[in-house]
Design brief:
With 365 residues, this protein is of the alpha+beta class. The protein has 14 helices and 16 strands. The chain has three domains: 128 residues, Trna Endonuclease, Chain: A, domain 1; 67 residues, Arc Repressor Mutant, subunit A (Orthogonal Bundle); 140 residues, Beta Polymerase, domain 2.
Length: 365
């Protein structure tokens, strides 16, 4: 369903006016003696406190507004603001804004209102702050929407984009990731629309907002449900089993979750040991593990996709998952794991040169 811009402006103004206190008034305004050009989709509103201060609201109305369009609108909005005689509020109005679009607008100091109820309006004189939560998913998605970041193939590409510094050619991403070129092209187009990656005309990826990429990919990933998982209690404790994984007779295992995160960006003492293993029975015998429905301190996983174990790391004689996979596992986990995932991202942003590969040829995806 597409709302025409004149109707969009009418509905948005009515909803915003209804949220304001009774002593505030929202009226049409002008710049240089002229209102917005008819049919342009823009409006000029005056927010005024009775017998008090007022501020100008420059409205950019669009029937759709993707994250990429946030960047494209920058110059137009800046030009409108320069014509104003006071410091204006810039308000984007559209039927629906994705969480990514809203975050980008707030970073640039813009206000917004969508028809699902997502509202962020800040004015200094008069002092007004309105913030409301609406829909995080488009209530009227396109019948054939862009590729989404779910499934093992998407996460395989996500990890390559995060792990290797640009430039990244589409053909190389497809070849090393073991993916179809058409699939990679479609997903990259979706990420470009979301302003998560930037590409040259020929399709080469030149920039990647890898923190946003990993967060977006984690939204449809559940550590314990996406991977086959079994819960246990270790009689000697998870910490003791973790130590024994460095012994010569320990079965092959790749550590993820809190114990791996604590080795990079500790948040709190690790309590639950999460392991990827190709032979859960062997690990169960090695650790004398007891099945548990509650209070489990050991989780054994079979990876949904073997590529999840690519670019694993050796840490103090034990094998840990690669950092991008560790972030996904933490953000897709329960308890305090998501908090540990965000702490990992913070550390990775400060130490990018220590973990990000310079070239795809260094990857064993």
């Amino acid at each position: 369903m597409e709302t025409p811009e004149p109707e969009l402006l009418k509905v948005a103004r009515s909803r915003l006016a209804a949220l304001l206190p009774a002593h505030f008034e929202l009226t049409d305004a002008m710049i240089d003696g002229q209102a917005a050009e008819p049919g342009s989709g823009d409006a000029l509103w005056q927010l005024e406190e009775h017998h008090g201060t007022s501020t100008l609201i420059l409205v950019e109305a669009k029937t759709s507004f993707t994250p990429r369009e946030v960047e494209r609108a920058d110059q137009r909005l800046a030009d409108l603001a320069q014509r104003a005689t006071q410091n204006p509020v810039i308000l984007v109005v559209t039927p629906w804004l994705s969480p990514r679009s809203r975050a980008l607008l707030e970073e640039r100091g813009y206000s917004y209102l969508d028809l699902t109820g997502n509202i962020h309006l800040r004015a200094e004189r008069p002092a007004v702050f309105v913030r409301m939560q609406g829909a995080d998913r488009d209530p009227y998605p396109a019948q054939r929407g862009p590729a989404r970041l779910h499934g093992p193939k998407a996460r395989r590409l996500v990890r390559l984009l995060a792990d290797v510094a640009p430039p990244l050619r589409l053909t190389d991403l497809a070849r090393i990731g073991g993916l179809n070129r058409g699939y990679v092209s479609s997903l990259l187009q979706s990420l470009d629309d979301q302003a998560i990656v930037d590409r040259e005309r020929r399709g080469t990826v030149t920039e990647v907002d890898w923190p946003a990429l990993l967060v977006a990919a984690s939204e449809r990933y559940d550590l314990l449900k996406t991977n086959a998982s079994t819960l246990f209690v270790a009689p000697a404790g998870a910490g003791e089993l973790f130590k024994r994984l460095g012994d010569d007779d320990a079965p092959p295992a790749v550590i993820t979750g809190s114990f791996a995160a604590s080795a990079v960006a500790p948040v709190a003492a690790a309590a639950q040991l999460v392991l990827y293993t190709s032979d859960p029975a062997e690990m169960r015998n090695f650790g004398r593990l007891l099945p548990a429905d509650r209070g489990a301190d050991v989780v054994l996983l079979r990876p949904e996709d073997e590529a999840q174990l690519a670019r694993s790391r050796r840490v103090s004689g034990r094998t840990h998952v690669g950092l991008s996979q560790l972030v996904l596992d933490c953000l897709g986990g329960n308890g305090r794991l998501p908090e540990e995932g965000h702490a990992l991202i913070d550390w990775m942003q400060k130490h990018e040169s220590q973990w990000r590969l310079r070239d795809l040829t260094e990857s064993d995806a």
